[in-house]
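Input.
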Amino acid sequence: MSPAPFRFYEFFAGGGMARLGLGPAWTCAFANDFDPVKAQAYRANFPDAPGHFLEGDVWRLEAGDLPGQADLAWASSPCQDFSLAGSRAGLGGGRSSAFFGFWRLIEALASEGRAPELVVIENVVGLLSSRDGADFAALGLALARQGYCFGALEIDAACLLPQSRPRVFVVASRRPAPPSLVGASPFHSRAVRAAHAALPPDLAPAWTWWGLPAPLRANATLESLLEPDEAVAWHAPERTQRLLALMSPSHRARLQAQAGRAVGAVYRRTRIEGGRRVQRAEVRFDGLAGCLRTPRGGSSRQAILAVDDGRVRSRLITPREAARLMGLPDSYRLPGAATAALHVTGDGVAAPVVRWLAAGLLEPLLARPAVLAAE
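Output.
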């Protein structure tokens, strides 16, 4: 069997979803995560993990821990300080400052002539606007100083999976972008355009409008990925009624409008109404789940609502269903405890999105220079 043509390092690897998305054309030369639950999931799913996976804080790594030279460094750095729902501390925040632990390694590799050709930084969309764009500008400056051109794409996993999960992918390349990979893209969202407009003028030459096309929309719906009704535990009627009581009039009307059988996803959220914080249950029947989260609070785990000719039932989403919503095969080994399994899936990157990005942009960027010159 011939070796895979591309090598990569995966930082903040979690359960290895970026690796799964990249696929067999890529060899993981090094992977790292400090979370013991995610590290255990990575080891359970990749038998070769002892040869390249290192559990621990990224700040304790040195360039010597990274073997050889990789084509790509992938970093799904902690996102809590960029999240619109979080503290918005930005790159100075305690968790997201882990990015700088990663970036000092790239700088060290560059000083040794081993910098990867490509860097991908995946995060929540709040990265683009954090501190009025100052954090994104700081990120761009760090990339440009190491000779990378860069651009951002906002990709919602809903274009490939029945889950609404918008994320920003900053793609940086040390090679000039060929004309075939530059141009208009549906992933140049309003947030991406605003982040570009807010960059300092001296970063303009480093910006690239990556021309990644949209994929054909997936046929799968939320219901198609769920377990059979008889295979899961449903809430007692009283618990379902308590959930329905949390709905606003508009969401109750949405529920009552469903005829025959309908399946929707429900989140509990805190809203400000009349100057007061009110907990609400919000339901959607558009065939999509809401964005999966890590189960840090009671409102973080989605519920499933099934309507059958007026009869309403509810239950919690299962870990296996959450894994399917991330594009993971049923052969993927989840932690035994539901909270741990949902922690791994809710904090990961959707594998099919990684595959689309790799096929449409990363792999063409790494094609031989002679091929690029002929375009």
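The radius of gyration is 22 Å.
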